[in-house]
Amino acid sequence: MKIKTLLLTSAVALSAVSASRGALTIGDIALIGLSGDTKELTFAVLNTISAGEIITFTDSGWNSGAFRGGEGGAIYTFAADTAAGTVITASGTSGTE
Questions:
Q1: Does the pTM of the predicted model rise above 0.70?
Q2: I need a labelling partner for 26 at 20 to 30 A (CA). Which of 19, 43, 57, 93 fits?
């Protein structure tokens, strides 16, 4: 049951990734780990990402054409240019590399 929940949550989180300046596209990152207990999120950078880019993750469910409100999320800001192949683990509700 935990695996199904993790996969569903991962799919929802990936569908909710957004970029601050629109430079990121689908496939630039891959969510590879998620822990509800420790509030850690691990993702791999698949294409170089520029400093200053912001990614927003959410665990809000999708309901009738919109995300439900009042659920958790995390914001990650890239402090430096980040090369493809980098794996990042962010803790809490926001993080900066």
A1: no
A2: 93
